[in-house]
Specification:
The protein is an alpha/beta fold and 279 residues long. It contains ten helices and seven strands.
């Protein structure tokens, strides 16, 4: 088996930490991102837009010139968007699926010839992938759910070629993406015409929930453990949020009722800030 692996989204956060972990374990890491990752011992930095088929093909040729097999592909490339499903720009809506799902599809399809019996594909999805989305997180949650289902379908097919596919459904991780989430929520609160008060109340909830974070190093080590497993399961979790777990157990009717009660204006002053049908 080859000691070479490919990691996408390797310029920062979890992808960067995974590159370091695998490099320390003796693997040659082809680290790929839209921004050129840092080089290091056994880390080969490569730059590509993984949503562009031509650039992914060029990336394949670059890696193929160095090795003919990969023991694993680890997917970290992705973007986060927080917005209302009825206010978001259509182009932005499409771009989330193109990056979060389409990039993994292109990479796996292109690099399949380099995978052998016993190779593994590991994808980072989200704990939201198997839960009903909260308000304003729908686009991200749905794209991650699509990635999760894509991974399961891919596992069903590639097992016939003795290639394993697994997902890690991570909760809040202490990376730049959480900062992006905070900034996007703040922007959404300022721009939304339909949910100004609801969004601000939701912002306060998110700030409390996301204080329970796990370090990127923990995610990288978890993925290395999955990689080393002889017969890895399909799905693994890390840093699951107990409140989200409890909330997801409730019947849909009760969940919707709770969200209405929690996010609705609490007093007359807040109520006046809400738009009316005549606005």
């Amino acid at each position: 088996m080859s000691n070479s692996i490919l990691i996408t989204g390797a310029a920062g956060g979890m992808g960067k930490e995974a590159s370091l972990v695998f490099a320390r374990k003796g693997f040659r890491v082809f680290a790929v991102d839209l921004t050129l990752p840092s080089s290091g011992d056994s880390i080969v930095p490569l730059q590509a837009d993984l949503t562009d088929p031509d650039q992914v093909h060029t990336l394949y040729e670059q890696v193929r010139s160095e090795t003919d097999t990969l023991s694993a592909i680890l997917h970290f490339a992705g973007i986060y968007r927080l917005n209302s499903l009825v206010e978001i720009n259509p182009a932005e809506f499409r771009s989330v699926f193109t990056v979060n799902v389409g990039a993994a599809f292109l990479v796996n399809r292109t690099f399949l010839p380099m995978l052998r019996s016993g190779s593994k594909i590991l994808l980072l999805t989200s704990e939201l992938a198997v839960r009903d989305p909260l308000p304003f997180t729908g686009l991200y949650a749905v794209s991650k759910a699509a990635l999760d289902r894509y991974a399961y379908s891919l596992r069903m097919e590639l097992q016939l070629l003795h290639i394993s596919v697994s997902v890690l459904r991570a909760g809040a991780v202490d990376t730049g993406m959480l900062g992006t989430s905070t900034n996007q929520l703040r922007t959404f609160c300022e721009k939304t015409q339909l949910y100004p008060v609801n969004a601000k109340r939701f912002q306060r909830i998110v700030e409390r929930v996301e204080t329970r974070r796990v370090k990127p190093e923990a995610v990288a080590k978890k993925l290395y453990g999955i990689f080393c497993s002889k017969n890895p399961r399909f799905a693994y979790s890390i840093n699951r949020n107990p409140l989200l777990i409890l909330f997801d157990i409730l019947p849909t009717r009760i969940r919707c009722c709770l969200i209405r009660q929690i996010l609705k204006p609490k007093d007359t002053a807040e109520q006046k800030k809400e738009p009316t049908q005549s606005d």
